[in-house]
Amino acid sequence: MKKWISILFLWMSYTCYSQEIPEEWKEGWGDENLERKLEDLYALIQEPLDLNKVSRDELMSLSFLNVRQVEDILIHREKYGHFLSIYELQVIPSLSLDILRKLAPIVKVSSNLAAGGSESHFLLYRTDFTLEKSKGFLEDEFGGDRLRQHLRYKWVNRDRFSLAFLMEKDPGEKDMFDHYLITLQWKNLGPLKQVILGNYSFQWGQGLVSSGGFSLGKGSEPVLGVKKGDLGFRPFQSLSEDLGFRGMALNSEFKNMELSFFYSHQFRDANLDGENFTSLVTSGLHRTENEIGKKDNVKEQVWGTSIKRRLKNSTLGMAYMETHFDKVFRKRDALYNYFSFQGKHHQILSLQGNYGGANYTLFSEIAYSEALAGVVGLSATIGRELDVSLVYRNYPARFTTLFGDAFSENSTPINERGQFLGWKYRFRRHWELQGHYDLYQFPWLKFGISHPSEGRDYSLKLWYKPRKTLTFKAQWREKYGLSKGAGLRVDWIFFKDWKVQSQWAWRAVSGDGWAWANDFEGSTGKWKWKLRCAYLHAPSYENRVYIYENDVLYATSFPAYYGEGIRYYVLVKRPLLKNMDVWVKFAQSRLDRNLGSGWDELPGTVKSDFRVQLKYSF
């Protein structure tokens, strides 16, 4: 009994920040697609899964739950009826405290909507600016003011209809708002399971065709993180202006069949070369005449369909996607671009399959576009102590995909062949060892490499948790011949939600870089506060160190620490009115060099950032 009271106390203290990113998810992210991982994660947080309606496929798509844990959740619901609270998950023996912490921000129970149980609204406004003027402002290159502004609204009606919009501008942009998103979503509309109008994202299969869902990746979760989730269509409310689709998406279910269709039409920023375009521009910045000249240069139309059949323990699916540009996509003349997609029209077809046994999951996808590519993997639980994963992928240089993000060492799943092994071993009750080994080859040339090449990397992480309020972590990661990295971290909850964290990170490329960060977190009355003071020594950008920073709700902060000096921040949160909260963050870096580059370069060695956010729920 004391054990469960202790777990409930710790979990409830954590869920005071239940819309924030769990510490367990930040491990090992490094600099691999950081923005996309964080945006996908916050999309999950904003659209949590209902424990009383969630399907087996949706739970498996979370990637950090194994087969046994998914089955235990479903069996509990079938045996005891609907969940009354997310805290009911604690009585399921296979769900550890770490798993409960990961689940807390992304699941809900239907009755937990706003007071009245029928509707919920929230309105959020955020503004921030850098106190020091950058080169672009000092030389009058930017047409707008120094404020970054962000306005977001969402209305959910009985969990069947939702409306959301987002408006945002970057510092230096002239218009009050430069980026707009709006999404309307209907659920269970006659024969249609879901209809979305506006902005959305989606993921089918293992990401060879399209990947718009959260995945932990091999660095953070070497066993369950290698499998991509398959949540289908989801509303898209991201600040990243280069991601997502805009148009219509719908899907329908007939017994054990699911049919999906989408159409997207939008203009994309691009670099032009006469009547062609050489690349899409992903920064989303429109401050200078040069940047404004790249805005909306290419019209993009995308449509696709998928069909999925669910059997008792397996899922089979097929997907097709077609993309049309109004200009010819022609990359710069370089030998490594020889097999890259060129033209106006792109087509891709894929077959997907998953099979779940008692303690294992098989997953695979095969896709064709100019060449046949595929990925197949296995995640298994062996007894109570050991979890393992195996992944094989083969993405020929001729294979092309415009929106794919399958398991790979490259940023896109092309020109790569590899074998991956991951494991997690729990021993002596308080200890856990996890790691991975990845061996890969690149059959064709890459940027900066004028011949076929190969590589390998591995990682080891050790957890020691002598009690539920104290955790020690150590890790090592190496890419042979390229880089090495290490980290140490201590987390100590010494009273209710009062917490101390100290971490040291080291990276070596051509030299050494390290950072030591100390965090303090707690509450006083209605005030909740988080503090950090970090010391850094990274002589070059090559040896930069990434350490996640706490930020206001729905904001992401994963800065590269480089240079020599200190960085600190103060983040506070307080309720203003009954349903209104305010966040304030001040951060400052004091280094031995000028900060920023290009038009963002600051004239001195100090950078001070100030951010304020208001959220009103009703």
From TrEMBL:
InterPro entries in alphabetical order: RuvA_2-like
Cited Pfam families: HHH_3
Protein name: Helix-hairpin-helix motif protein
Organism: Leadbetterella byssophila (strain DSM 17132 / JCM 16389 / KACC 11308 / NBRC 106382 / 4M15)
